[in-house]
Amino acid sequence: MAQYSLVAGSVGLITLQNPPVNALSAVVRKGIVSTFERALRDPKVKSVVICGQNGVFCGGADIKEFGTNMSGPPLVPMIHAIEAADKPVVAAIEGSALGGGLELALGCHYRIAHSNARLGLPEVSLGLLPAAGGTQRLPRLIGIPAALDLITTGRHVTAAEALQLGIVDQVTDHKIVDEAVKFVLSVAGKPLDARRISTYPCPPLSDLDTVFEMVMQKVRQRAHGAIAPIACVQAVQAAATLPYAQGMEREKELMATLFTSGQARSMQYCFFAQRAVSKWSIPSGARWDTSMPRPVHKAAVIGLGTMGRGITVALAQTGLSVVAVETQEKQLMEAKQAMPGMLERGARRRGVSLTLHKITYSRDIRAVADVDLVIEAVFEDMALKKKVFQQLSDICKPGTFLCTNTSGLDVDHLASQTCNPELVVGMHFFAPAHVMKLLEVVYGPRSSPQAVATAMQLGKKMGKVSVAVGNCRGFVGNRMLKPYVEQAFFLLEEGATPEQVDGALEEFGFSMGVFKVSDLSGLDVGWRVRMADGFAEPGASSGPSARVRQGRRYSPLGDLLCEQGRFGQKTGQGWYQYDKPGGRVARSDPWLHSFLAEYRTRHGLVARRIDNQEVLERCLYALINEGFRILEDGIAAGPEDIDLIYVFGYGWPRHRGGPMFYAGMVGLTKVLQRLEHYHQAHPDVPFMQPCSLLRRLVASGSPPVHRWREVIKKVHSQL
Ligand SMILES: CCC[C@H](O)CC(=O)SCCNC(=O)CCNC(=O)[C@H](O)C(C)(C)COP(=O)([O-])OP(=O)([O-])OC[C@H]1O[C@@H](n2cnc3c(N)ncnc32)[C@H](O)[C@@H]1OP(=O)([O-])[O-]
């Protein structure tokens, strides 16, 4: 709703009230319309201030209403009525003014912001565009290039930047409503014609067509198939080329195509999933709202390789004191040199000024004796990690949480090396750890609720999307990757090329296909894992049994490349070739194509034409099938957890909602049928055998993804 009061004798104060972010629900819109009409009617009222309760102006349209039959007064005419009013209206902005919230403020004649405010039009990240006049008013106010930047990226700006851009008229550190009232009294009686943004011409720009062509090209490249950023450019182009009323028509038309699209549904699902996973619960019954995290003032990182450095930076950026330990002198020196630059770039990326960081370096593990939490990030070797955990258990003060950054080793086994296994959890970061948003918090059967809560809270402090997952080989993300990569290898054996497989995945929306990712992260990483699992063995990659391991189909292609020293970008050759070791631009490699041809001949395989649909189905459905197994095993609490892990850690396109949501969009019956088809064709590939949970969901009528937990609960209760 919206509350109305008369202040300072002549100012109508409208306060938006819809906790927690004063979203513009039907009731709020109704409240604004009626209170505004009241203010206009009242002869005592000479001016109006609009603000939000509880320190937040407005988080925009109510996203929860999007899937429903929208009722109540629409936003656009409401904002027009505010702009057309003959009494001055000031938006008093504190906290957030986002989406429809900022559009409402742009309809006001003046905007004053508290210095804590963040403003933006983030609709693009919900698969939409700012359709309450945002695409038409913002370019008129701040110019086309700046508006294009804000609208196509959805980034939030600080009050200071908003002032610089001209979005707000004044920034204050004082009480926002008092300042707004003072301000509106000072402008009472001044003509308002020059304050109505919709009447402004768009600031002219020379060579408009070239500007839009270039922007469109850039946006398309970044969008990876998402349609909202393209529509945002088209809407701003309308502002630049059409009169306001026609521009508004175009904005409405474009919004209509986005609003009902599967992409918008997927992205809005991601928005709510992100909030849902922070409300974690684990099989022991521990939950986010009953488990108290312990404060962490000082942390330590053991091992300053690529991961350790990123984790140290991520921790230091939160303002914590960090002890960074590396026993190898050379590695320590390199880390010391690299860290300031990483911190500086991090500050620039986050739009904050570089503050003094409290990192101390040591070669001696005993330097961690007084920290509250340690993150071990040494080489991925169980024997080495065990030794580190034994040492930490002896050295650290009582109660120190011991975390491992392993990407898949047994967290419980590491916990058993310590005197207090309840203090041990996994904190699985993704490279580069100070940039990537995902954190898997891995609980073992003995991890205490407090240890999980502390790791989850620390993740949040670091700006991560933290997902609590159970302990199994590869946890959630890497476990699902295995069948996906396996299918990609099989497709090469059957006639596909890395270019084709990657092309199909990139067209689907991944920023990089599976083979390019493999080249980037190093082929030797997977090779080492396969050796540890007893799949890859030296010399076993040739001969008649090369394509069968442990009774199942196996492709030694990755092992063969590693045996040749082709580790990917770092060696200049992998699935692609690069102009030099460390090169970034993947080029098709004729050597690899003849290697594949020879390999097929050697193993009596006849290359066939494989279409992109098969590439997608085999890679993605194998991965999704493993996702169902993970749910069945209780390793992830719900489909949202898996989806966010893939969106934030593995480049799954957000506009496809994550693998489990995508399965629901495709139709669970279809996914099941295709898995059955491929499993019949390849009975020696267990990953293709449809998971019983998937069958159960189909038998229950394929409920929507938000109702899967009910079926999963039933499955677990019957175990
Ligand atoms: C014609 C239409 C035109 C228009 O252009 C379209 C739009 O405006 S599109 C909209 C454009 N606007 C946006 O895209 C802004 C989206 N919102 C945000 O970015 C952040 O929520 C915000 C920065 C505001 C606060 O961050 P924070 O302090 O970390 O808090 P938090 O994030 O944890 O949220 C707390 C609770 O509020 C809930 N909720 C939040 N917003 C909305 C909403 N608009 N609606 C409904 N609910 C919303 C959220 O689900 C959560 O619920 P719960 O049940 O407690 O889990």
Automatic annotation (TrEMBL):
In the N-terminal section; belongs to the enoyl-CoA hydratase/isomerase family. Belongs to the enoyl-CoA hydratase/isomerase family. PROSITE patterns: 3HCDH, ENOYL_COA_HYDRATASE. InterPro entries: 3-OHacyl-CoA_DH_CS, 3-OHacyl-CoA_DH_NAD-bd, 3HC_DH_C, 6-PGluconate_DH-like_C_sf, ClpP/crotonase-like_dom_sf, Enoyl-CoA_hyd/isom_CS, Enoyl-CoA_hydra/iso, NAD(P)-bd_dom_sf. One of its GO terms (biological process) is fatty acid beta-oxidation. It comes from the Eukaryota. Its EC number is 1.1.1.35, 4.2.1.17, 5.3.3.8. Residues 298-471 form the 3-hydroxyacyl-CoA dehydrogenase NAD binding domain. Keywords: Fatty acid metabolism, Isomerase, Lipid metabolism, Lyase, Multifunctional enzyme, NAD, Oxidoreductase, Peroxisome. Residues 474-578, 615-702 form the 3-hydroxyacyl-CoA dehydrogenase C-terminal domain. It catalyses: (3E,5Z)-octadienoyl-CoA = (2E,5Z)-octadienoyl-CoA; (3E)-hexenoyl-CoA = (2E)-hexenoyl-CoA; (2S,3S)-3-hydroxy-2-methylbutanoyl-CoA = (2E)-2-methylbut-2-enoyl-CoA + H2O; (3E,5Z)-tetradecadienoyl-CoA = (2E,5Z)-tetradecadienoyl-CoA. The keyword Transit peptide does not apply. One of its GO terms (cellular component) is peroxisome. It comes from Mastacembelus armatus. GO terms for molecular function: (3S)-3-hydroxyacyl-CoA dehydrogenase (NAD+) activity; delta(3)-delta(2)-enoyl-CoA isomerase activity; enoyl-CoA hydratase activity; NAD+ binding. This is Peroxisomal bifunctional enzyme. It is found in: Peroxisome. Pathway: Lipid metabolism; fatty acid beta-oxidation. PANTHER family: 3-HYDROXYACYL-COA DEHYROGENASE (PTHR23309), PEROXISOMAL BIFUNCTIONAL ENZYME (PTHR23309:SF49). Monomer.
